[in-house]
Amino acid sequence: MVLDVITSDAPVPYREALERQHQLHARRVADEIPDTLWLLEHPPVITTGIRRNQEANILIDPSVVDAEIVETERGGEVTYHGPGQLVGYLFVSIENHGFRVRRFVERLEEAFILYLADAHGIKARHDDEHTGVWVGMDKITAIGIALRRRVTLHGFAFNVNTDLSHFDWIVPCGIADSTRGVTSLEKLIGETIDLRAAAGGVAASIKSCLGYDSVSV
């Protein structure tokens, strides 16, 4: 199996990306394209998932900070996207892998755990209570997947060089626990990371953990 990887160099506005997600999803459902990973950044945006009553988890007036709020059909709750964050949208036929959604998410988590260990010597982990990838009690990668007609859409948000103060705008993923926080790769290693290099490493780790034979870029 081949994983096709698309990379956007310039930040893509979230609503524009959402429209393209739906286009790529429809093409994957129709078997016009192989399983695909789209890697990109967004301008500042707050997104909500399918759970109800998420307004209480948005702590600012988005117009004051020049961000917008977009409702989505993914799982999970409130999430922030912005510059320096590597976002990945996955269009994968999970039947071809024999996956259920929970197992698919676990494989994605494992991809980041392996990437952080191999590329940066960082020990990351799964969490029994909350989806995503954690370093200690701080989340470094959020994951929210939707499944339509047995093909995934949405994906992950990996804090590489993200401005972590922007997470003060929300209750990240609805987790109102003062012992938990967010972190970034830049914060953990003390230097700015080349986002394209991180994207290449993440794509290679996803290839391995999801069982692809090769990656097409």
Structure, described:
With 217 residues, the protein is α/β, with parallel strands linked by helices. The chain has one domain (2-216): BirA Bifunctional Protein, domain 2, CATH 3.30.930. It is 26% helix and 26% strand. The strands form 2 sheets. Strands 1, 2, 6, 7, 8, 9, 10 and 11 form an 8-stranded mixed beta sheet that branches. Strands 4-3-5 form a 3-stranded mixed beta sheet, with no helix packed on it. α2 packs across α4 (195-210).
Shape: globular
Percent helix among the residues?
25-40%
Q: pLDDT average, as an integer?
A: 90
CATH C-level class is Alpha Beta
For the secondary structure, the number of strands is 11
Strand content: 25-35%
Largest sheet: 8 strands, mixed
Describe the protein's topology.
Layout: E1 2-7, H1 14-29, E2 36-40, E3 45-48, E4 68-71, E5 79-81, E6 85-91, H2 101-120, E7 133-135, E8 138-148, E9 151-159, E10 181-182, H3 185-189, H4 195-210, E11 214-216
Parallel strand pairs: 1-2, 1-11, 3-4, 8-10
Antiparallel strand pairs: 2-6, 3-5, 6-9, 7-8, 8-9
Helix pairs in contact: 2-4
Keyword list:
217 residues; BirA Bifunctional Protein, domain 2; 3-stranded mixed sheet
Describe what is shown at a glance:
The protein has 217 residues and is an alpha/beta fold.
